[in-house]
Amino acid sequence: MSSLPPLGEFGEAPILDCPSFSKLRETLTGTIVATSGGFDPIHPGHASCILASKDFVEKETGKRPDHLVVIVNGDGFLRNKKGAEFQDLNTRARLVACMRGVDCVVTYETATDMSVNGALEAIRPNFFTKGGDRTDASNIAEWDLCQSLSCEVVTGCGLSKDWSSSDMLARWGKLLEAGKIK
Question: Structure pTM?
Answer without folding.
Answer: 0.91
